[in-house]
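To whoever is on call:

I kicked off a structure prediction for a single chain this morning and the downstream step that reads the tokens threw a length-mismatch warning. I double-checked the sequence; it's 236 residues and nothing unusual in it as far as I can see. Pasting both halves so you can look.
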Amino acid sequence: MKKHIPNTLTSLNLFSGSIATVMAFQGEYTWVVVWVIIAALFDFSDGFAARLLKAYSPIGKELDSLADMVSFGLAPSIAAFRFLSDNTIRISQNPIIIEYLPYIAFLLAIFSALRLAKFNVDERQSESFIGLNTPANAMFWVSFCYGLAYKVPMITPSLIYTFLVAIVVFSLLMVSEIPMFSLKIKNIKFKGNEYRYFLAAFIIVATITIGVLGIAAGILLYITLSIFKQTGILKK
């Protein structure tokens, strides 16, 4: 029985991501955030369970990527698509642009798929990541869409343009060669986990202070810390 536990947790990740996708289509950004977070918890727990029970399998690896594609690729893409569909009119009255521009959001899904495929065949990513991982990308987008939809009093054209540029930038970050430290904590010691604890503390404080947008701010900090660490601005 124990060999089926990790795959069951992965399946629950997929189930949560499917619900998040439905919520994204409906523009229910609060529930998108909730279900993507739940999916991320299952995504973390399946790997933990596999290591604890020594229940590794080739099927489990492939299933994990397929589940992640829905939870962290498709769901945030649809959230971004819905946001653009509701707001593209703020930058253009052209019916063609209003109709088709929101589809740029699916760059996030395409590059998430490329990222996951690359991760599966890249043996360099056993201890850390190369490029932005899909859960972090998803957490940024669902919290960003939530913040813009519910916390920003007025959606301006500059915000829409920033949103579009961010889609391209984050898509490229996922397949970039920028090393980024893993968010998984293998032990509770502070030494060796300094960046992780600092990031976790920042997200907690930011979320308490500014709400769900604090998660998006935390992901931006994560990217910044990784780049600074790689360039030597921060000591390794």
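Update from on-call: the warning came from a stale cache, not from the record. Cleared it. Sanity check on the structure: The first strand starts at residue 129 and ends at 130.
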